[in-house]
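pasting input
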Amino acid sequence: EIVLTQSPGTLSLSPGERATLSCRTSQSVSSSFLAWYQQKPGQAPRLLIFGASSRATGIPDRFSGSGSGTDFTLTISRLEPEDFAVYYCQHYGTSPFTFGPGTKVDIK
Amino acid sequence: QVQLQESGPGLVKPSETLSLTCTVSGGSISSYYWSWIRQPAGKGLEWIGRIFATGSTNYSPSLQSRVTMSVDTSKNQFSLKLNSVTAADTAVYFCARVRLGGFDAFDIWGQGTMVTVSS
């Protein structure tokens, strides 16, 4: 089973600032089969990024993903008020399709 | 647009079987993989398993001995059964669509349904 580690656990930032979230996998993820999701309280997760760097339909371009192998990054270029949430990475290259523990982005 | 809706009992007794159904509306269940994911209160996401429209399944090793998934294409529904439940199975259960093929992200999610295991 591939284990995902996310850092930091919590990121305290102000609107307009840049957010950089890290996801590391215990084994190389084939063909960049890595996704990022945003989850707000009481809501289902929303797909932001798939294939490590492709934005899902309707996702603003302030969200970008990068990385390969075992190190991946989600960047939010300028935080908007609606971006304060928990972010999860997930691999889907091999079963089981595990998620990271999440990074909470909160308002400083 | 495609929407998913989970349904089923919100309360299940210990040692009994948790049964949930996900209804797909606005599109066909055919040609896609579908998954169940759960989330205990205040915790992270756990993938339970996936099923293709033909009925082919793939389960998480940690739950494989207790999980059964099925699909009913005539009703555009797929289902989850988890037997011998304990308090550790208390969680919000989500159904989700796999974007394309068997190895892809989950692009459409249901709103989730809370299931509590308690006597």
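fyi Chain B has no helices and eleven strands.
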